[in-house]
């Protein structure tokens, strides 16, 4: 009956559709079953359909062997001795090692085939189609080796840049990236960005990557009431940090830029993506003498830090030697006869 996926096939997508052909006998309908073993779990069990195509109600699991059977039925009853077929799904392609970074400096864009470029309005129900408006650009429109992902928004158009799939096992990761808004093809010290884009939107979303909705928006910049004002995005770039609290399992992150009116003509750019643990703020360090031969390093408490590592070197270029670790915001040490340089690094352990 020509099963698709073929019997014993491997590398099957987790979104596969089951297909077959009639073996004759003028069936009125079919009973479809799909299950896995260890333990025995039915995804569908004798589900009735009149079609020779069956769309599964759920996404399958990665690296899993499934067994399925189709039983034709007509007025004489169900067919007997119908074969059971099997197939194995693809290994999990998700990013699993963190921190994960991307700077878009490579020779290919998107950086890998796991990235997606799509188009579609940020209005429910969201329906995405093909789109290639996101491109590799010179970061801040300054020629050089520092590249970025960018999109020019000037009329009734939009674009989605969607990351590879992540597997989050904990809900304590963070997304960092650099964001810039520039006048089309202008550097930060050139013509300022247009401020007439009252309908322009830039948003960051997260979902399973198969369906998207406005409920997936984690943060949106616009000029129509958002606390994150789009016109205030710096043309010199600014660092953005978005907590990924509460997101576990398989997820993709999407960057959306779009407009519905032809007014402002601006470039949106993102660069230096990071997904992983919180990066503590950089401490501001001061040194003072507290005795004849004692010195004291003090610094401000860094948001997200659980401790601090203190390094010393004979020159500003290093090499740097770890001399102490502390949970405090100060460190006392004996003054040295030779000049020393000190560095404090905030740590999130």
UniProtKB/TrEMBL annotation:
Organism superkingdom: Bacteria
Domain Fibronectin type-III: 1-92
Protein's UniProt name: Fibronectin type-III domain-containing protein
């Amino acid at each position: 009956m020509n099963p698709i996926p073929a019997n014993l096939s491997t590398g099957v997508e987790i979104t596969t559709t089951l297909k077959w052909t009639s073996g004759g006998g003028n069936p009125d309908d079919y009973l479809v079953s799909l299950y896995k073993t260890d333990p025995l779990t039915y995804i569908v069990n004798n589900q009735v359909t009149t079609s020779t195509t069956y769309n599964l109600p759920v996404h399958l699991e990665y690296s899993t062997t499934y067994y399925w059977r189709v039983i034709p039925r007509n007025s004489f009853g169900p067919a007997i001795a119908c074969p059971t077929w099997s197939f194995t799904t693809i290994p999990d392609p998700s990013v699993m090692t963190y921190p994960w970074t991307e700077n878009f400096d490579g020779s290919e864009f998107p950086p890998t085939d796991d990235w997606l470029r799509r188009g579609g309005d940020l209005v429910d129900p969201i329906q995405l189609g093909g789109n290639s408006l996101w491109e590799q650009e010179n970061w801040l429109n300054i020629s050089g080796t520092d590249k970025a992902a960018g999109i020019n928004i000037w009329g009734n158009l939009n674009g989605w840049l969607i990351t590879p799939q992540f597997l989050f096992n904990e809900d304590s990761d963070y997304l960092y990236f650099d964001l810039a808004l520039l006048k089309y093809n202008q550097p930060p010290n050139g013509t300022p960005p247009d401020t007439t884009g009252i309908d322009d939107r830039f948003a960051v979303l997260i979902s399973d990557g198969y369906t998207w909705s406005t409920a997936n928006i984690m943060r949106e910049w616009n000029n129509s009431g958002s606390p994150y004002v789009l016109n205030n995005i710096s043309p010199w770039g600014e660092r953005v940090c978005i907590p990924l609290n509460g997101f576990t399992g398989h997820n993709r992150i999407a960057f959306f830029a779009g407009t519905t009116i032809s007014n402002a003509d601006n470039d949106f750019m993102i660069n230096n993506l990071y997904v992983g643990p919180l990066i503590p703020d950089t401490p501001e360090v001061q040194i003072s003498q507290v005795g004849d031969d004692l010195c004291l390093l003090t610094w401000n408490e860094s948001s997200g830090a659980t401790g601090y590592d203190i390094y010393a070197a004979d020159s500003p270029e290093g090499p740097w030697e770890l001399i102490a670790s502390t949970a405090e915001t100060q460190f006392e040490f004996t003054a040295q006869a030779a000049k020393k340089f000190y560095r404090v690094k905030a740590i999130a352990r």
